[in-house]
Amino acid sequence: MEVIYTVCSSSEEAKLIGKILVQEKLCACVNIFPAMQSIYFWEGNIVEDEEAVLLIKTHKDLFDKISKKIKSLHSYEVPCVFSLSVNNVTEDYVTWMNHVIEP
Length: 103
Hints:
This protein has 103 residues and is an alpha+beta fold. It is built from three helices and four strands, in the order βαββαβα. Strand 2 and strand 3 (45-58) form a beta hairpin. It starts with a strand and ends with a helix.
């Protein structure tokens, strides 16, 4: 299991991306945190924004496919997309994920 982390410009964008990933069976589930404060450099300036966090629960081997899908749907020129490996997960959750995600 792997969790892919990305941030979106709004909760609506996160919902759109998340729903497509679930519909295409690239992940078992997504979680959206609708309001996060971000401070970052962009084009030489410090930017303060409110963004939405999208967490995507999937299999490790689907990172490249999901990353490409996110980039094709995302409003940002350079979206943040990275994965966090999960070391421990309950067997029943993995069984459910395996039934939901298509290889």
